[in-house]
Amino acid sequence: MRTSMDINLHRVALLKEARDGLPTWRLRGIIRTWLCGFILDRTLSAQLGKPSSVRGDNSVSFYMDLIRQGMQGVKDDVRVASLAASQ
Predict the structure, then answer these.
(1) Which residue has the higher pLDDT, 36 or 55?
(2) Domain that holds residue 66
(3) How far, in Å, CA of 69 to CA of 55, rounded?
(4) What are the DSSP calls for 35-87, one per residue?
(5) Stretch 16-20: mean pLDDT, rounded?
(6) pTM score, two decimals?
């Protein structure tokens, strides 16, 4: 999670300038990578009884909005987003 935050995967959702010019397949890859990392971080934190690495981050809700707006036909992304929302 630290590495993904260092390369600002969590900020692509927040900055429209970062999303502009990205091909759809790359944006989907960034979204999936961040959401899966978020899910793993929350799951392992709960299992190990340690605090999560990601606190107070709104990027998950922004990513879910991006999925709803532009990628409605992609069922796998919707499933990952719903799992992240449940975390």
Answers:
(1) 36
(2) 2-86
(3) 25
(4) HHHHHHHHHHHHHHT---S--S--HHHHHHHHHHHH-TT-HHHHHHHHHHHH-
(5) 79
(6) 0.71
